[in-house]
Amino acid sequence: MPLTLSKACPRSLQLALMIVAGVALSGIAFPVAAGASVATYTGNYIVRWRDGSTTIDAAGDTARIRRVESSTGLGIALKRPMSGTMQLLAIQDGRGEGPEAVAKRLRNDPRVADAVPDRWLRLHDTVPNDPDFSYQLPYMGAPANSAGGVNLPRAWDRSRGASSVVVAVVDTGYLPHPDLAGRLVAGYDFITPTDVSQDGDGRDADPTDPGDYVPSGTTCPDGSGASNSTWHGTRVASVIGAITNNGQGIAGVDWNARIQPVRVSGRCGALLSDTIDGMRWAGGLSVPNVPPNPTPARVVNISLGGGTCSSFEQQAINDLNAAGVIVVAAAGNSSGAVESPADCTGVIAVTAHANDGENASYANVGPEVAISAPGGGCGNSRLSVSGGVATCASPAGMSYIATLSNSGAAGPTTYSVVGSQGTSFAAPIVSGVVSMMLAQNPALTPALVTTVLKATARPHPANTYCTTGDHVGDCGAGLLDADAALAAAPKASPATSTTQPPAPPTGGGGSSNGGGGTSSSNGGGGGAFAPWSAAALLMIGLAGFARRRCVWRAGRGVTQGRLQ
Ligand SMILES: [Ca+2]
Ligand SMILES: [Ca+2]
Asked: Where is this chain compositionally biased, Polar residues type (predicted)?
Protein backbone atom coordinates (compact mmCIF):
# COMPACT_ATOMS: atom_id res chain seq x y z
CA MET A 1 0.00 0.00 0.00
CA PRO A 2 1.59 3.26 -0.98
CA LEU A 3 1.74 6.19 1.33
CA THR A 4 -1.61 7.87 1.07
CA LEU A 5 -2.24 11.41 1.98
CA SER A 6 -5.19 12.91 3.66
CA LYS A 7 -7.37 14.88 1.36
CA ALA A 8 -6.52 17.91 3.39
CA CYS A 9 -2.91 17.82 2.31
CA PRO A 10 -1.95 20.21 -0.45
CA ARG A 11 -0.70 18.94 -3.75
CA SER A 12 2.74 20.24 -3.01
CA LEU A 13 2.98 17.71 -0.22
CA GLN A 14 2.18 14.86 -2.55
CA LEU A 15 4.84 16.00 -4.94
CA ALA A 16 7.35 16.38 -2.18
CA LEU A 17 6.63 12.91 -0.94
CA MET A 18 7.27 11.51 -4.36
CA ILE A 19 10.64 13.19 -4.34
CA VAL A 20 11.36 11.81 -0.91
CA ALA A 21 10.41 8.34 -2.08
CA GLY A 22 12.69 8.60 -5.06
CA VAL A 23 15.62 9.53 -2.90
CA ALA A 24 14.90 6.65 -0.57
CA LEU A 25 14.66 4.04 -3.24
CA SER A 26 17.78 5.20 -5.01
CA GLY A 27 19.77 4.90 -1.83
CA ILE A 28 18.95 1.29 -1.05
CA ALA A 29 20.63 -1.60 -2.76
CA PHE A 30 19.15 -4.73 -1.24
CA PRO A 31 16.22 -4.28 1.09
CA VAL A 32 15.92 -7.40 3.14
CA ALA A 33 13.29 -8.57 5.52
CA ALA A 34 13.98 -8.77 9.21
CA GLY A 35 13.01 -11.64 11.42
CA ALA A 36 13.92 -15.32 11.47
CA SER A 37 16.76 -16.11 9.12
CA VAL A 38 15.83 -18.44 6.26
CA ALA A 39 18.74 -19.40 4.05
CA THR A 40 18.62 -18.77 0.33
CA TYR A 41 20.73 -21.30 -1.59
CA THR A 42 22.56 -21.00 -4.86
CA GLY A 43 22.67 -24.61 -6.08
CA ASN A 44 26.43 -24.67 -5.59
CA TYR A 45 28.35 -26.45 -2.86
CA ILE A 46 31.65 -25.80 -1.15
CA VAL A 47 33.64 -28.99 -0.74
CA ARG A 48 36.95 -29.94 0.79
CA TRP A 49 38.42 -33.24 -0.37
CA ARG A 50 40.12 -35.59 2.02
CA ASP A 51 43.21 -35.71 -0.18
CA GLY A 52 43.50 -31.92 -0.14
CA SER A 53 43.07 -31.58 -3.87
CA THR A 54 42.23 -28.15 -5.14
CA THR A 55 42.88 -28.56 -8.84
CA ILE A 56 40.24 -28.02 -11.43
CA ASP A 57 39.73 -30.19 -14.51
CA ALA A 58 42.76 -32.27 -13.74
CA ALA A 59 42.42 -35.89 -14.65
CA GLY A 60 42.46 -36.88 -11.01
CA ASP A 61 39.69 -34.49 -10.21
CA THR A 62 37.57 -35.72 -13.03
CA ALA A 63 37.99 -39.32 -12.03
CA ARG A 64 37.16 -38.51 -8.44
CA ILE A 65 34.09 -36.56 -9.45
CA ARG A 66 32.79 -39.48 -11.50
CA ARG A 67 33.16 -41.79 -8.54
CA VAL A 68 31.38 -39.38 -6.21
CA GLU A 69 28.58 -38.97 -8.72
CA SER A 70 28.20 -42.73 -8.81
CA SER A 71 28.04 -43.08 -5.06
CA THR A 72 25.78 -40.11 -4.37
CA GLY A 73 23.54 -40.03 -7.42
CA LEU A 74 24.37 -36.37 -7.93
CA GLY A 75 25.42 -34.58 -11.11
CA ILE A 76 28.61 -32.69 -10.29
CA ALA A 77 30.55 -30.05 -12.18
CA LEU A 78 33.64 -28.26 -10.93
CA LYS A 79 33.34 -24.47 -10.86
CA ARG A 80 36.45 -23.01 -9.27
CA PRO A 81 39.03 -23.49 -6.56
CA MET A 82 38.75 -21.52 -3.36
CA SER A 83 41.04 -20.38 -0.61
CA GLY A 84 41.61 -22.83 2.22
CA THR A 85 41.80 -25.98 0.05
CA MET A 86 38.13 -25.78 -0.85
CA GLN A 87 36.41 -26.14 -4.20
CA LEU A 88 33.12 -24.78 -5.41
CA LEU A 89 30.96 -27.38 -7.17
CA ALA A 90 27.76 -27.00 -9.16
CA ILE A 91 25.47 -29.89 -8.33
CA GLN A 92 22.30 -31.25 -9.91
CA ASP A 93 20.16 -33.35 -7.61
CA GLY A 94 17.64 -35.58 -9.30
CA ARG A 95 15.99 -36.64 -6.06
CA GLY A 96 14.65 -33.21 -5.18
CA GLU A 97 16.12 -33.19 -1.71
CA GLY A 98 16.98 -29.90 -0.05
CA PRO A 99 20.48 -28.43 -0.17
CA GLU A 100 21.33 -29.44 3.38
CA ALA A 101 20.37 -33.06 2.61
CA VAL A 102 22.48 -32.97 -0.54
CA ALA A 103 25.42 -31.66 1.46
CA LYS A 104 24.96 -34.50 3.93
CA ARG A 105 25.00 -37.00 1.07
CA LEU A 106 28.25 -35.51 -0.10
CA ARG A 107 29.74 -35.65 3.37
CA ASN A 108 28.88 -39.33 3.57
CA ASP A 109 31.16 -40.04 0.61
CA PRO A 110 34.55 -41.22 1.89
CA ARG A 111 36.37 -38.90 -0.51
CA VAL A 112 34.69 -35.80 0.93
CA ALA A 113 36.08 -34.21 4.10
CA ASP A 114 33.33 -31.61 4.31
CA ALA A 115 30.57 -30.07 2.20
CA VAL A 116 28.40 -27.03 2.76
CA PRO A 117 25.77 -25.57 0.44
CA ASP A 118 26.68 -22.15 -0.88
CA ARG A 119 24.08 -19.60 0.19
CA TRP A 120 23.26 -15.92 0.12
CA LEU A 121 24.36 -13.75 3.00
CA ARG A 122 22.87 -10.36 3.70
CA LEU A 123 23.85 -7.00 5.01
CA HIS A 124 23.53 -6.62 8.74
CA ASP A 125 20.97 -3.93 8.32
CA THR A 126 17.51 -4.68 9.55
CA VAL A 127 15.03 -3.33 7.07
CA PRO A 128 11.39 -3.93 7.92
CA ASN A 129 8.88 -4.96 5.30
CA ASP A 130 6.40 -2.17 5.98
CA PRO A 131 5.55 -0.83 2.52
CA ASP A 132 5.84 2.82 3.49
CA PHE A 133 9.26 2.34 5.03
CA SER A 134 10.72 3.54 1.75
CA TYR A 135 9.30 6.97 2.57
CA GLN A 136 10.83 6.78 6.04
CA LEU A 137 14.34 5.84 4.98
CA PRO A 138 15.60 9.40 4.37
CA TYR A 139 15.20 10.13 8.07
CA MET A 140 15.36 6.67 9.61
CA GLY A 141 18.16 5.26 7.46
CA ALA A 142 21.91 5.55 7.27
CA PRO A 143 23.51 9.00 7.36
CA ALA A 144 25.65 7.96 4.39
CA ASN A 145 22.50 8.11 2.29
CA SER A 146 20.76 11.02 4.00
CA ALA A 147 22.66 13.29 6.37
CA GLY A 148 19.77 13.59 8.78
CA GLY A 149 19.09 9.86 9.06
CA VAL A 150 19.16 8.36 12.54
CA ASN A 151 20.76 5.06 11.51
CA LEU A 152 17.95 2.77 12.63
CA PRO A 153 18.55 -0.24 10.36
CA ARG A 154 21.95 -0.63 12.01
CA ALA A 155 20.48 0.04 15.44
CA TRP A 156 17.84 -2.65 14.92
CA ASP A 157 20.63 -5.20 14.70
CA ARG A 158 21.44 -4.29 18.30
CA SER A 159 17.93 -3.96 19.71
CA ARG A 160 14.38 -3.68 18.53
CA GLY A 161 13.08 -2.83 21.97
CA ALA A 162 11.37 -4.91 24.63
CA SER A 163 7.71 -5.30 25.50
CA SER A 164 8.62 -4.74 29.14
CA VAL A 165 9.30 -1.07 28.43
CA VAL A 166 6.33 1.31 28.38
CA VAL A 167 6.47 4.69 26.63
CA ALA A 168 3.74 7.15 27.56
CA VAL A 169 2.46 9.57 24.95
CA VAL A 170 1.01 12.58 26.77
CA ASP A 171 -1.10 14.05 24.01
CA THR A 172 -4.60 14.02 22.48
CA GLY A 173 -5.26 10.35 23.19
CA TYR A 174 -5.29 7.66 20.55
CA LEU A 175 -7.23 5.97 17.82
CA PRO A 176 -6.96 2.21 17.29
CA HIS A 177 -5.28 2.56 13.92
CA PRO A 178 -4.79 -0.98 12.60
CA ASP A 179 -1.03 -0.37 12.30
CA LEU A 180 -0.83 0.77 15.94
CA ALA A 181 -3.56 -0.71 18.13
CA GLY A 182 -1.68 -3.90 19.00
CA ARG A 183 1.09 -1.88 20.64
CA LEU A 184 -1.03 -0.10 23.24
CA VAL A 185 -1.47 -0.59 26.96
CA ALA A 186 -4.20 1.01 29.03
CA GLY A 187 -3.92 4.73 29.46
CA TYR A 188 -6.17 7.40 30.91
CA ASP A 189 -8.14 10.49 29.94
CA PHE A 190 -7.06 13.42 32.13
CA ILE A 191 -9.09 16.15 30.46
CA THR A 192 -11.36 17.73 33.05
CA PRO A 193 -13.52 20.30 31.19
CA THR A 194 -16.15 18.65 29.03
CA ASP A 195 -15.96 21.39 26.42
CA VAL A 196 -12.31 20.47 25.95
CA SER A 197 -12.66 16.70 26.25
CA GLN A 198 -15.47 16.42 23.68
CA ASP A 199 -16.19 12.92 24.95
CA GLY A 200 -19.14 13.93 27.10
CA ASP A 201 -17.44 13.72 30.46
CA GLY A 202 -14.34 14.64 32.44
CA ARG A 203 -11.58 12.32 33.52
CA ASP A 204 -12.10 8.63 32.87
CA ALA A 205 -10.22 5.47 31.98
CA ASP A 206 -10.76 5.80 28.23
CA PRO A 207 -8.08 7.85 26.43
CA THR A 208 -9.66 7.34 23.02
CA ASP A 209 -9.39 10.52 20.97
CA PRO A 210 -12.86 11.69 19.87
CA GLY A 211 -11.26 14.53 17.90
CA ASP A 212 -9.95 17.92 18.97
CA TYR A 213 -11.73 19.85 16.22
CA VAL A 214 -13.03 23.31 16.98
CA PRO A 215 -16.47 23.73 15.45
CA SER A 216 -17.43 26.69 13.36
CA GLY A 217 -18.50 29.63 15.45
CA THR A 218 -16.37 28.66 18.42
CA THR A 219 -13.50 30.85 19.55
CA CYS A 220 -10.81 29.34 21.75
CA PRO A 221 -9.36 31.18 24.74
CA ASP A 222 -6.32 32.08 22.64
CA GLY A 223 -8.56 33.66 20.02
CA SER A 224 -8.21 30.94 17.41
CA GLY A 225 -11.27 29.69 15.58
CA ALA A 226 -12.56 26.63 13.79
CA SER A 227 -10.14 23.84 12.97
CA ASN A 228 -10.14 20.18 12.06
CA SER A 229 -9.13 17.36 14.37
CA THR A 230 -5.39 16.77 14.42
CA TRP A 231 -5.23 13.12 15.62
CA HIS A 232 -1.96 14.35 17.05
CA GLY A 233 -1.64 11.69 19.74
CA THR A 234 -2.07 8.88 17.23
CA ARG A 235 0.46 10.45 14.91
CA VAL A 236 3.04 10.92 17.68
CA ALA A 237 2.48 7.40 19.04
CA SER A 238 2.92 5.95 15.58
CA VAL A 239 6.38 7.44 15.27
CA ILE A 240 7.46 5.55 18.37
CA GLY A 241 5.54 2.35 17.95
CA ALA A 242 3.67 1.70 14.75
CA ILE A 243 3.48 -2.06 14.34
CA THR A 244 6.67 -2.83 12.48
CA ASN A 245 7.59 -5.52 9.97
CA ASN A 246 3.94 -6.46 9.59
CA GLY A 247 3.73 -5.78 5.88
CA GLN A 248 1.49 -2.76 6.23
CA GLY A 249 1.74 0.94 6.81
CA ILE A 250 4.83 2.40 8.41
CA ALA A 251 7.60 1.24 10.72
CA GLY A 252 8.00 2.50 14.28
CA VAL A 253 11.31 3.34 15.90
CA ASP A 254 10.88 0.70 18.63
CA TRP A 255 9.38 -2.60 17.47
CA ASN A 256 8.34 -3.95 20.86
CA ALA A 257 7.87 -1.31 23.54
CA ARG A 258 4.29 -0.71 24.58
CA ILE A 259 2.65 2.65 24.13
CA GLN A 260 0.53 4.22 26.86
CA PRO A 261 -1.84 6.94 25.66
CA VAL A 262 -2.35 9.66 28.25
CA ARG A 263 -4.97 12.09 27.05
CA VAL A 264 -4.55 15.71 28.13
CA SER A 265 -5.23 17.81 25.04
CA GLY A 266 -8.59 18.33 23.36
CA ARG A 267 -10.52 21.20 21.84
CA CYS A 268 -8.44 24.39 22.00
CA GLY A 269 -5.49 22.61 23.60
CA ALA A 270 -4.53 21.33 27.02
CA LEU A 271 -4.73 22.74 30.49
CA LEU A 272 -1.49 22.90 32.43
CA SER A 273 -3.27 21.38 35.42
CA ASP A 274 -4.47 18.36 33.43
CA THR A 275 -1.10 17.96 31.75
CA ILE A 276 0.88 17.94 34.99
CA ASP A 277 -1.42 15.28 36.44
CA GLY A 278 -1.17 13.26 33.23
CA MET A 279 2.61 13.41 33.12
CA ARG A 280 2.93 12.38 36.74
CA TRP A 281 0.46 9.51 36.39
CA ALA A 282 2.27 8.30 33.27
CA GLY A 283 5.42 7.81 35.31
CA GLY A 284 3.66 5.97 38.10
CA LEU A 285 3.15 8.86 40.52
CA SER A 286 -0.17 9.05 42.32
CA VAL A 287 -2.95 11.40 41.26
CA PRO A 288 -5.94 12.02 43.55
CA ASN A 289 -9.16 10.31 42.45
CA VAL A 290 -7.38 8.45 39.65
CA PRO A 291 -6.53 4.73 39.93
CA PRO A 292 -2.80 3.95 40.05
CA ASN A 293 -1.13 3.42 36.70
CA PRO A 294 -0.91 -0.39 36.34
CA THR A 295 1.95 -0.17 33.84
CA PRO A 296 4.03 2.92 34.60
CA ALA A 297 6.10 4.27 31.76
CA ARG A 298 9.89 4.52 31.81
CA VAL A 299 9.74 7.10 29.02
CA VAL A 300 7.28 9.98 28.89
CA ASN A 301 6.98 11.73 25.54
CA ILE A 302 5.37 15.14 25.53
CA SER A 303 4.98 16.82 22.15
CA LEU A 304 3.01 19.82 23.37
CA GLY A 305 3.59 22.77 25.59
CA GLY A 306 3.96 26.48 25.78
CA GLY A 307 5.29 29.26 27.94
CA THR A 308 8.22 28.75 30.27
CA CYS A 309 8.81 26.07 32.86
CA SER A 310 6.76 26.69 35.97
CA SER A 311 7.69 25.49 39.42
CA PHE A 312 5.04 22.77 39.23
CA GLU A 313 6.21 21.49 35.89
CA GLN A 314 9.77 21.44 37.21
CA GLN A 315 8.59 19.56 40.28
CA ALA A 316 6.86 17.01 38.05
CA ILE A 317 10.05 16.51 36.05
CA ASN A 318 12.12 16.22 39.22
CA ASP A 319 9.75 13.62 40.68
CA LEU A 320 9.63 11.67 37.43
CA ASN A 321 13.42 11.69 37.09
CA ALA A 322 13.73 10.58 40.69
CA ALA A 323 11.47 7.62 39.85
CA GLY A 324 13.82 6.71 36.99
CA VAL A 325 11.51 8.10 34.31
CA ILE A 326 13.02 9.74 31.24
CA VAL A 327 11.03 12.72 29.98
CA VAL A 328 11.44 13.66 26.31
CA ALA A 329 9.82 16.89 25.12
CA ALA A 330 9.51 18.74 21.84
CA ALA A 331 11.13 22.17 21.80
CA GLY A 332 8.23 23.73 19.87
CA ASN A 333 7.61 25.14 16.42
CA SER A 334 7.52 28.88 16.87
CA SER A 335 10.97 29.53 15.37
CA GLY A 336 11.96 30.96 18.69
CA ALA A 337 13.03 29.95 22.18
CA VAL A 338 12.46 26.51 23.68
CA GLU A 339 9.03 26.26 25.29
CA SER A 340 7.90 24.47 28.42
CA PRO A 341 8.12 21.70 29.45
CA ALA A 342 11.10 21.20 27.13
CA ASP A 343 12.88 24.05 28.92
CA CYS A 344 12.60 22.39 32.32
CA THR A 345 15.77 20.99 33.84
CA GLY A 346 15.99 17.23 33.51
CA VAL A 347 14.00 17.02 30.29
CA ILE A 348 15.57 15.77 27.08
CA ALA A 349 14.60 18.72 24.89
CA VAL A 350 14.44 17.87 21.19
CA THR A 351 14.70 20.25 18.27
CA ALA A 352 14.11 19.11 14.69
CA HIS A 353 16.14 18.84 11.51
CA ALA A 354 15.17 18.19 7.93
CA ASN A 355 16.35 15.11 6.10
CA ASP A 356 19.49 16.91 4.98
CA GLY A 357 20.45 17.43 8.61
CA GLU A 358 19.92 21.19 8.88
CA ASN A 359 17.75 22.57 11.64
CA ALA A 360 14.18 22.97 10.40
CA SER A 361 13.03 26.52 9.84
CA TYR A 362 10.13 26.21 12.26
CA ALA A 363 12.04 24.50 15.08
CA ASN A 364 12.68 26.20 18.39
CA VAL A 365 16.28 26.19 19.55
CA GLY A 366 18.19 27.38 22.57
CA PRO A 367 20.66 26.33 25.24
CA GLU A 368 18.12 23.94 26.75
CA VAL A 369 18.10 21.70 23.66
CA ALA A 370 19.78 18.34 24.25
CA ILE A 371 19.67 16.88 20.76
CA SER A 372 18.15 17.18 17.31
CA ALA A 373 16.06 14.53 15.58
CA PRO A 374 14.27 14.44 12.24
CA GLY A 375 11.03 16.37 12.20
CA GLY A 376 10.46 17.12 8.56
CA GLY A 377 10.37 20.58 7.02
CA CYS A 378 13.14 22.49 5.35
CA GLY A 379 16.56 23.49 6.59
CA ASN A 380 16.61 27.09 7.68
CA SER A 381 19.13 28.23 5.06
CA ARG A 382 17.39 26.27 2.32
CA LEU A 383 13.98 27.85 2.54
CA SER A 384 13.00 30.73 0.34
CA VAL A 385 9.64 32.35 -0.11
CA SER A 386 8.42 34.16 -3.17
CA GLY A 387 4.92 35.29 -3.80
CA GLY A 388 3.69 33.39 -0.79
CA VAL A 389 5.10 30.10 -2.08
CA ALA A 390 7.81 28.38 -0.07
CA THR A 391 10.57 26.59 -1.90
CA CYS A 392 13.00 24.23 -0.23
CA ALA A 393 16.33 24.21 -2.03
CA SER A 394 17.53 21.04 -0.35
CA PRO A 395 18.28 18.30 -2.88
CA ALA A 396 15.81 16.12 -1.03
CA GLY A 397 13.14 18.81 -1.16
CA MET A 398 10.75 19.30 1.69
CA SER A 399 10.96 16.57 4.35
CA TYR A 400 8.11 14.76 6.07
CA ILE A 401 7.74 12.26 8.85
CA ALA A 402 5.37 9.44 7.96
CA THR A 403 2.66 9.08 10.60
CA LEU A 404 -0.55 7.16 11.18
CA SER A 405 -3.64 9.33 11.25
CA ASN A 406 -7.27 9.55 10.32
CA SER A 407 -9.14 11.43 7.64
CA GLY A 408 -11.94 12.61 9.90
CA ALA A 409 -12.27 16.38 10.12
CA ALA A 410 -14.31 16.11 13.33
CA GLY A 411 -14.81 12.55 14.58
CA PRO A 412 -12.75 9.67 13.20
CA THR A 413 -13.56 8.23 9.78
CA THR A 414 -10.98 6.49 7.60
CA TYR A 415 -7.54 5.56 8.80
CA SER A 416 -4.67 7.01 6.85
CA VAL A 417 -0.93 7.55 6.65
CA VAL A 418 0.08 11.19 6.37
CA GLY A 419 3.27 13.18 6.17
CA SER A 420 3.82 15.32 9.28
CA GLN A 421 6.25 18.04 10.27
CA GLY A 422 7.23 19.50 13.60
CA THR A 423 9.30 18.98 16.70
CA SER A 424 6.26 16.95 17.81
CA PHE A 425 7.55 14.20 15.56
CA ALA A 426 11.22 14.63 16.37
CA ALA A 427 10.71 14.03 20.09
CA PRO A 428 9.09 10.59 19.64
CA ILE A 429 12.01 9.44 17.50
CA VAL A 430 14.23 10.18 20.49
CA SER A 431 11.73 8.51 22.83
CA GLY A 432 11.82 5.36 20.71
CA VAL A 433 15.61 5.25 20.79
CA VAL A 434 15.54 5.76 24.56
CA SER A 435 13.11 2.86 24.97
CA MET A 436 15.46 0.64 22.98
CA MET A 437 18.33 1.72 25.22
CA LEU A 438 16.20 0.67 28.19
CA ALA A 439 15.46 -2.65 26.52
CA GLN A 440 19.20 -3.26 26.47
CA ASN A 441 19.58 -2.14 30.06
CA PRO A 442 16.60 -1.27 32.27
CA ALA A 443 18.94 0.17 34.90
CA LEU A 444 19.88 3.22 32.81
CA THR A 445 19.10 6.45 34.63
CA PRO A 446 17.69 9.59 33.04
CA ALA A 447 21.04 11.30 33.48
CA LEU A 448 22.96 8.47 31.84
CA VAL A 449 20.53 8.20 28.95
CA THR A 450 20.91 11.92 28.34
CA THR A 451 24.68 11.73 28.52
CA VAL A 452 24.85 8.87 26.04
CA LEU A 453 22.49 10.50 23.56
CA LYS A 454 24.48 13.70 23.60
CA ALA A 455 27.86 12.00 23.49
CA THR A 456 26.92 9.89 20.48
CA ALA A 457 25.18 12.60 18.48
CA ARG A 458 26.70 13.39 15.12
CA PRO A 459 27.83 16.97 14.50
CA HIS A 460 25.43 19.36 12.87
CA PRO A 461 26.32 19.65 9.20
CA ALA A 462 28.93 22.30 8.47
CA ASN A 463 27.81 25.66 7.18
CA THR A 464 24.22 25.21 8.25
CA TYR A 465 22.08 27.16 10.67
CA CYS A 466 23.36 25.44 13.82
CA THR A 467 27.05 25.83 12.98
CA THR A 468 27.08 29.44 11.88
CA GLY A 469 26.63 32.84 13.41
CA ASP A 470 25.28 33.11 16.91
CA HIS A 471 23.32 29.87 16.60
CA VAL A 472 26.28 27.70 17.62
CA GLY A 473 25.33 25.88 20.78
CA ASP A 474 21.61 26.45 20.34
CA CYS A 475 20.76 23.14 18.65
CA GLY A 476 21.96 20.65 21.22
CA ALA A 477 24.83 18.19 21.00
CA GLY A 478 24.09 17.23 17.40
CA LEU A 479 22.00 14.86 15.32
CA LEU A 480 20.52 11.76 16.93
CA ASP A 481 22.32 8.53 15.98
CA ALA A 482 20.36 5.50 17.17
CA ASP A 483 23.05 3.00 16.31
CA ALA A 484 25.79 4.92 18.09
CA ALA A 485 23.58 5.44 21.14
CA LEU A 486 22.69 1.76 21.44
CA ALA A 487 26.32 0.81 20.91
CA ALA A 488 27.60 3.20 23.57
CA ALA A 489 24.97 2.77 26.25
CA PRO A 490 26.11 0.54 29.10
CA LYS A 491 24.59 -2.91 28.73
CA ALA A 492 22.74 -4.84 31.38
CA SER A 493 24.78 -6.99 33.70
CA PRO A 494 24.12 -10.73 33.43
CA ALA A 495 21.90 -10.50 36.48
CA THR A 496 19.67 -7.98 34.77
CA SER A 497 17.23 -8.79 32.04
CA THR A 498 14.86 -6.76 29.98
CA THR A 499 11.92 -8.49 31.60
CA GLN A 500 12.73 -7.10 35.00
CA PRO A 501 10.91 -4.09 36.34
CA PRO A 502 12.54 -0.70 36.16
CA ALA A 503 15.58 -0.10 38.26
CA PRO A 504 15.06 1.71 41.53
CA PRO A 505 15.37 5.45 41.41
CA THR A 506 18.86 6.76 41.61
CA GLY A 507 18.36 10.37 42.37
CA GLY A 508 17.94 13.60 40.60
CA GLY A 509 18.05 12.30 37.08
CA GLY A 510 19.19 14.03 34.00
CA SER A 511 20.59 17.44 33.62
CA SER A 512 20.27 17.81 29.93
CA ASN A 513 19.76 21.49 29.98
CA GLY A 514 20.25 24.53 32.00
CA GLY A 515 16.75 25.82 31.79
CA GLY A 516 13.97 25.33 34.21
CA GLY A 517 13.62 27.40 37.27
CA THR A 518 10.61 28.66 39.02
CA SER A 519 9.17 31.22 36.74
CA SER A 520 5.46 31.18 36.53
CA SER A 521 3.95 29.80 33.39
CA ASN A 522 1.73 31.74 31.14
CA GLY A 523 0.50 28.35 29.99
CA GLY A 524 -0.51 29.71 26.64
CA GLY A 525 -3.51 31.79 25.84
CA GLY A 526 -6.32 31.55 28.31
CA GLY A 527 -4.30 29.16 30.44
CA ALA A 528 -4.38 26.54 27.71
CA PHE A 529 -1.49 25.10 25.85
CA ALA A 530 -1.98 23.09 22.79
CA PRO A 531 -0.18 20.44 20.78
CA TRP A 532 2.56 21.52 18.49
CA SER A 533 0.60 19.99 15.73
CA ALA A 534 2.01 20.03 12.26
CA ALA A 535 -1.47 19.57 10.93
CA ALA A 536 -1.78 23.22 10.21
CA LEU A 537 1.54 23.18 8.43
CA LEU A 538 0.12 20.54 6.18
CA MET A 539 -3.40 21.70 5.76
CA ILE A 540 -3.19 25.41 5.54
CA GLY A 541 -1.19 27.57 3.23
CA LEU A 542 1.80 29.55 4.11
CA ALA A 543 1.94 32.79 5.95
CA GLY A 544 4.39 34.86 7.85
CA PHE A 545 8.08 34.59 7.12
CA ALA A 546 9.47 37.10 9.49
CA ARG A 547 11.48 37.25 12.66
CA ARG A 548 15.03 36.20 13.05
CA ARG A 549 14.65 32.98 11.13
CA CYS A 550 13.39 32.02 7.76
CA VAL A 551 10.09 30.90 9.12
CA TRP A 552 7.61 28.69 7.41
CA ARG A 553 4.46 28.37 9.37
CA ALA A 554 0.79 27.93 9.05
CA GLY A 555 -1.57 30.82 8.87
CA ARG A 556 -3.71 29.58 11.71
CA GLY A 557 -2.48 29.81 15.22
CA VAL A 558 0.77 31.55 14.51
CA THR A 559 0.14 34.55 16.61
CA GLN A 560 -2.87 33.58 18.64
CA GLY A 561 -2.14 30.22 20.14
CA ARG A 562 -0.12 27.09 20.23
CA LEU A 563 -1.59 25.10 17.37
CA GLN A 564 1.36 25.42 15.06
CA1 LIG B 1 -13.53 11.92 29.42
CA1 LIG C 1 3.61 -1.27 9.99
From this structure: 216-229
Count of structural domains, the chain? 2
CATH number where 446 lies: 3.40.50.200
Shared-domain flag, residues 484 and 386? yes
DSSP 469: G
Domain interval for residue 236 = 11-35+126-491+524-554
Largest Cα–Cα separation, the chain? 94
pLDDT on residue 124:
64
Cα gap 172→236, rounded to integer Å: 10
Cα–Cα distance for residue pair 104/113, rounded to 1 Å: 11
Residue 544 DSSP one-character state:
-
Minimum-distance ligand to the CA of 206? 1
pLDDT digits (tens, 9 = 90+) for 48-92: 999 888 777 677 788 889 999 999 999 999 888 888 889 999 999
| Angle between helix 133-140 and 11-26 (nearest 10) | 70
Number of H helices, E strands in the chain: 13, 20
- Ligand 2 center to residue 152 CA distance, Å? 15
Question: What are 419-473's pLDDT values in tens digits?
Answer: 999 999 999 999 999 999 999 999 999 999 999 999 999 999 999 999 999 999 9
pTM of the predicted model as reported, rounded to 2 decimal places: 0.74
Distances (CA, A) of 434 to 161, 217, 441: 9, 43, 10
- Predicted confidence at residue 244, as pLDDT, reads 97
In a domain, 518, yes or no: no
pLDDT at residue 33, rounded to an integer: 31
pLDDT in tens, 160-215: 999 999 999 999 999 999 999 999 999 999 999 999 999 999 999 999 999 999 99
Q: Which residues participate in catalysis according to the annotation?
A: 171, 232, 424
Domain-embedded: residue 26: yes
Q: How far, in Å, from the CA of 236 to the mean position of ligand 2? A: 14
CATH for 96: 3.30.70
338 and 484 in a common domain: yes
Torsion of the alpha carbons at 351, 238, 131 and 36, rounded to the nearest 10: 100
- CB atoms within 5 A of ion ligand 2 belong to 130, 179, 242-243, 246, 249
Q: Which ligand is nearest to the CA of 274?
A: 1
Query: Which ligand gives the minimal distance to the CA of 133?
Result: 2
Spatial distance between the Cα atoms of 355 and 20, rounded to a whole number of angstroms: 9
Residues (pLDDT < 50) of the chain are 1-37, 496-548, 552-564
**Residue 560: per-residue pLDDT:** 22
How far is ligand 2, taken at its centre, from the CA of residue 198, in Å? 29
Cα of 198 vs centre of ligand 1, distance in Å, is: 8
